[in-house]
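Re: the 503-residue chain
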Amino acid sequence: MEQPADPRARRLFGGSARALGDLAASPFRADRDRIVGSPFFTRLGGVTQVVSPGGSGLLVHNRLTHSLKVAQVARAIAERLTADDRYRDLLAALGGCDPDVVEAAALAHDLGHPPFGHLGERVLDRLARQRLGLPDGFEGNAQSYRIVTSTEIGGAATIGLDLTAAVRAAMLKYPWTRLDHPDPHPRHLDPPPRGAAAPADDPASGSAKFGAYRTELDDLRQAREPFVGRIADWQQTVEASVMDTADDVAYAIHDVEDFHRVGVLQQGAVAAELTAWQKEHGHYRSVTDAALASTARRPGAAIERLRRQLHRKDGWIADDEAFAAAVEHVRREVVEGLLALPFDGSIEAEQYVARFSARWTTRFVDAIQVVREPSVRSGHVQLAAPQWHEVQVLKFVHHRFVLARPDLALHQRGQARLLGTLVEALWEWLLDPEEESRLPRRLHDLVELAEAELHPRTADRSARARGRAIVDFVALLTDSQAVAMLDSLSGRSGALWTDAFVL
């Protein structure tokens, strides 16, 4: 296959993967078609975004619909920036901003997210490191990168998606490994890039967020090669920055929309929090952190903690006037607007939610700018300060009034226990010598792939290969497949055949 002139369009495997999109004029559009046509993308329709659609009782976003909307926002941002004469030379100097690249990366960015949303990600990381002995653990972004770059098993056909360098680079929100690439590692910067810092309770574990496992490091280097000298080795490409910003925008808007539909967001509770802070923000600013923590349930205290957190983490952009204006704008739009009437499923209610979402999306897309020398905590593409603060306040509403709910915690603790039990059951199955020929075929293949990736002299090579294969296998399940597989392994299912095995 003849290589394109643009080095960003180089593929990983030389074009061995085939898809309908290969007929497209742009190699980046071909990438988009490969992603959308893959079973990894289809699977996202059965993976939780925040809460399981089955548990909510109503239609909420899943990982598939979220990815589609991120792609829509990302393309709108890219098209706006490339049409703006102010940014033409700067975008070219930084490595380019192709709307097709941005859209493809947005569609692919969540391919590796496991069952049960971010909860599943945290649980699998803990199990991978503490139970299965994998130093890299598990990370959803790194798993997405692993899916699109996995090469071959014993010389067999490619199982990755054979994407171009530009799209793979644009998927890298966090273009570093957990522990040692690049050198010096970005977690040692002061301040570190967003996501690069180690968890406060486990500083030796490496970055909390990272874009690739050690096994995909060569692929990461190849994808980033066209950008060497244009951006810092820990910095996102422009296209990755667009995708990351679009992800933040979609998350902030659509999660508020979801939980209004479900009836979880109550006007009174949100109004009490925001208006109490507006009335007493002068008092709150004089309260010590310790005193604020002791009055955590008092209306207004939580959003004051958000204000202080923004100053501690993002002093490069945090501004009290912009924060106060954002609180007021969210109060008007969400409390007095979206939440003023309960969602009743009527056409009028649906149209109101659609207008809310469209209005906020347009507001954020229009506020995007490109900067030559961003803060370490930001990419080259960023929201203007007023809208950046509005995103933080919208996300606060979701965290405070949804994620902190005891009923959601009860649901998620059950899901965490399910994943732990499933990983243990698969480990025992892999260790049973009499069952080797009856393992799920995909699990067997993943063990072979993991063994091929490890150096022959790696300590506990077989154990590590089995551990990585189990993590890869579980991460490819939908929510319902994870439940069905554990039911079968526990003897609770009366069904002989289940799609949990057809992977």
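Strands lie at 368-370, 381-383.
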